[in-house]
Amino acid sequence: MKSITKDTIIMDALRLDADIAPFFLEIGMHCLGCPSATGETIEEACEVHGADADELVAKINDFLAGK
Fold it and tell me: Could you tell me if 42 and 13 are in contact, meaning their C-beta atoms sit under 8 angstroms apart?
């Protein structure tokens, strides 16, 4: 099964399954192709965007588990 953690780099998560992009967009992460996405963890990005990393990771992993 595919899964991610808070320590997963955003771009690595998107490479795992591009269908998760809307989860990032929903919380204001609109720059998924920017240089930050290639080196920033999900947790770091959530801190910048005022989002709960645990909640985002849980939503994404639930989505991935259902595929």
Answer: yes
| pTM score, whole prediction | 0.91
Q: Report the alpha-carbon distance of residue 67 to residue 65 in Å, rounded.
A: 6
Give dist(CA 14, CA 35) in Å, integer: 14
Q: From residue 46, give the alpha-carbon distance in Å to each of 9, 28, 49, 52, 67.
A: 12, 9, 5, 6, 24
- 15-46 per-position pLDDT tens digit: 999 999 999 999 998 888 888 889 999 999 99
